[in-house]
């Protein structure tokens, strides 16, 4: 396992802030000396008073001792230091902000190499670039045909797209049928071995290709083995990086909390998160103008395979977002409260797109050829299609150190990510700082960890560029409110199927009083007395209700989406990934 996959919460230092605060940083990373307070081979009687105090504090917080190694955070990297000069790609893609190139992308896109899709790779890529994306991942469905011939057949199309669209980063991946669970994006950095690695992975670990006689326990073990295989290919230098992101995790209720934890713990350098909001956002547009179904195709009910603890509300989206993400104090927060680096994304899951006028090419034989013939114009408008083109509605914006494939993957792994629907905002910079430090080069960005001494005052600063140009539905979104959400880090859970975080809640809501330019907000956390994390969301405030955990936790959260009447443009949200503040 890579060194950083074993790093404890308290071992991550200087992560995301190459600056000189008015406090000390303890360099206790995986390659450094262990602090006496953390070395349990040293008895309390031999520690200094300060180390005794520190050990007691960490032990009381559940961050020291048995099971604490499961509390891992993102990779420490000098590349996360803010304020460094960065270069862009051939077309100057992305937006420079806070020392990073912010690159918008989509990691869940299907083509004619999927049994339920129809477009060419270049079609999806051109649309994605036209709608403002800097990177895309082609993720055709894992299947017998795909494993046998599809992985190899799509690769020349991807390589040709890379050559034609040099200002778009086009990754090859696949949508994995996770054994015993839902689907996931799996993708790798471009390499001469990309086909070999993906083909071997799909052949050996795809749920559709495993024996039908497997027990659930055997399938869960196969999923863990698959994630570990991807990590082994990185260590063997077959590919420079490989990532896993669980797709539409609450759609059918079959991604149990313990499975999600086990995926992440199998290799945190590979398994990094899940979709905070699913694709298929056009599926809720009311008839006769649309399909009249559920946003994200979240129109299911519990089955025998579903985790029995999930509530009925988990099978629907909330403001377009998955219940696991949208519920303050819910499943995502339960992972963050453990100190687990687990990030959210959004994407299109584009198969067949709303208002398109094409169909699969005539005479197609998918089973024989592993693809459909090139799409043809029909003149018939697809009002019942459930998808949008990549970049048309949802985007995952990644803070990269520069423009490039590995840089995007590094930014995703580090959690420097914010997501939005309908281009709600133009840009965002969120930093946690020691109170009063306003230097532009300081602050810990999204996904980062700030270590400070107990009693140090900290605050979050938010700079948000408001939208001033129409989105692709031809209106200018208006951000109305920004919520700051804080949760206590309580350490590893005793029950791996836990999915609540009782200490997490909205601590501050800022009303946005203007419609253009930039807005800035600061919220003080006071003096550090226990480890915590903070995340942020924002909304146009068109549809809201109290959250599932009650108004005291989330007074004006996203509203439960209605089957058959869920216009995706009717309420827009953005979410950030978290920042942690931990004691030294």
From TrEMBL:
Biased composition (Basic and acidic residues): 18-30
Transmembrane domains' residue ranges: none
Polymerase/histidinol phosphatase N-terminal domain: residues covered: 105-180
Annotated GO MF terms: 5'-3' DNA exonuclease activity; 5'-3' RNA exonuclease activity
Entries under SUPFAM superfamilies matching the protein: PHP domain-like (SSF89550)
Keywords assigned: Hydrolase
UniProt keyword Hydrolase, yes or no: yes
SMART domains cross-referenced by the UniProt entry: POLIIIAc
InterPro entries: PHP_domain (IPR052018), Pol/His_phosphatase_N (IPR003141), Pol/histidinol_Pase-like (IPR016195), TAT_signal (IPR006311)
Tree of life domain: Bacteria
Sequence segments annotated as region (Disordered): 18-48
UniProt-recorded name of the protein: Histidinol phosphatase-like PHP family hydrolase
Organism: Paractinoplanes brasiliensis
